[in-house]
Write a structure and sequence with these properties.
The chain is an alpha+beta fold. It has 9 helices and 4 strands, in the order βαβαββααααααα. Helix 1 crosses helix 8 and helix 5 packs across helix 7. The longest helix has 31 residues.
Length: 229
């Protein structure tokens, strides 16, 4: 059994996408980031950067003590290697998938998060910040669209952990829709992943784990989420 320390955010969805695709048995340990669960000593022992997701694999492949893993990209890579799925075995295919996995970790995720923060959550609207991150995310969508004009998925012909990493960050904010008219290849890719049964099972967890998802944040939640605690 795998214990998944999770809250339904884009980074959390990455891991449930992978677990639902592989069929690995797992149980969710909710980490209510609005309530400050990420700062508890027990969680910090697993995820020292006080960020979810994290997991503890009780039957690791080496047969030893339970293996903990933090950071969503590292978790996806760990699960791919554990199962032998969604990461090509050939060296060139593996490099392509890892390129796009790390591209997401370094670019699409952080920039989309900043776009969301300054558009949706910031108490003061700062035009420079809004324009800067809106433009950068649009540029990154263009990078994806060009890649997806060449191949079915980011890493090549097959669905992979690179796609699982990027998918939750496309349209992550209801009030900031993606310009799919400008990026038709991105839309084709997004629709194909959305139609997968494992994707639908993964996203169904959102309401089960956090029925308050999408509602305005309280002042206490803002303190925990935005470093004011």
């Amino acid at each position: 059994m795998i214990d998944l320390y999770y809250w339904p955010t884009p980074n959390g969805h990455k891991v449930t996408l992978m677990l639902e695709e592989t069929g690995l048995p797992y149980r969710i340990q909710p980490v209510n980031i609005g309530a400050g669960d990420q700062f508890t000593p027990a969680f910090l022992a697993i995820s020292p950067n006080n960020k979810m997701p994290a997991l503890v694999d009780h039957p690791p492949t080496d047969g030893g003590a339970p293996q903990s893993v933090f950071e969503s990209g590292a978790i996806l890579l760990y699960l791919a290697e554990k199962t032998g799925r969604f990461l090509p075995a050939d060296s060139r295919g593996r490099v392509a998938v890892l390129e796009w996995l790390f591209w997401q970790m370094a670019g699409l995720g952080p920039m989309s998060g900043q776009m969301g923060h300054f558009n949706v959550y910031a108490p003061e609207k700062i035009p420079y910040a809004i324009e800067r991150y809106n433009n950068e995310v649009r540029r990154l969508h263009g990078v994806m669209d060009k890649r997806l004009a060449q191949s079915a998925y980011l890493g090549g012909d097959d669905y992979s952990i690179a796609d699982m990493a990027s998918y939750p960050w496309i349209g992550a904010y209801d009030t900031l829709p993606v310009d799919f008219d400008a990026f038709p290849n991105l839309k084709r890719w997004h629709d194909a992943i959305a139609a997968r049964p494992a994707t639908q099972r993964a996203y169904a967890l959102r309401e089960k784990v956090n029925p308050q998802a999408g509602k305005p944040l309280s002042e206490e939640e803002r303190k925990h989420l935005f470093g004011q605690r």
